[in-house]
Amino acid sequence: MAHFYLGCAVWGYKDWVGDLFPPGSKNADFLALYSRRLTTVEGNTTFYATPKPEVVQRWAEETPAHFRFCFKLPREVSHAGPLVEQIGATQAFVERMAPLGTRLGPFFLQLPPGYPPHKLADLEQWIQSWPTEQRIAVEVRHDDWYTQPQEAALMELLARYSAGRVVMDVRPLSAGPLPGAEIDLEAARDRKPDVPMHPLHSSGLALVRYIGHPTPALNEPFLDEWAARVAQWLATGIEVYFFCHCPDERRSPALCRAFQQRLARLAEIPPLPWDELDQGLQQATLF
Q1: Cis link prior to 253 (omega < 30° from 0)?
Q2: d(CA 10, CA 3)
Q3: Least buried of 32, 127, 141, 194, by fewest C-beta within 10 Å?
């Protein structure tokens, strides 16, 4: 069976209570509940702060063995000048997260928009020092990375060091307005880099960050497109991590469920734990 993981950007969001989480759920239970409904999470919190050892240990204890954390490297590593100067800090961060063991999915390095292709040698030195027992994927945001020959050089570098490529799809944010919205789509677009969507993967690994529109119907053509593409990747043995974001975070779990349903028609993938739980609850009410 193909290796496919599906999740959101965070695991704890209070407005998911009554939807992803049962009514009355407490904040302290969010990770345990989330990890038994979806199969991975973008660990965005580690971009801002490195957790204490006891917190990492608790995360391991609260999650099932099949669950995968994909932690973002701290901004002190990715956004504080040359990467080569942060090799020590990088290794210390990976060591801190190591107690999660097999629950660790790929880490990912999110480079800032001000990190251009002429710094490729700096990126190579950093990747060369990456611990080989862990996987890493790279997200680039400077426009020049998406032109040739710079993109080809990046992909060659990633392949040489068995690193993956992170793909961000922000196209849905421009699919249409949301009349009377409580959120500001313009502000949401400003927060996300308007980079081209180049559906690339490297080293048998694909990480996709899908930024959905708050209006469900406007996502349908994009989700259909991604389901067909991911099904093809899975058929060739590519391991896929698919993360659903939304400016209205309440809607992210529903995007996950909608994508799972589409992909399941095209590829043999494990059932979504969330769906299995709901089916069990429905059956229990019949007796």
Answers
A1: no
A2: 21
A3: 194
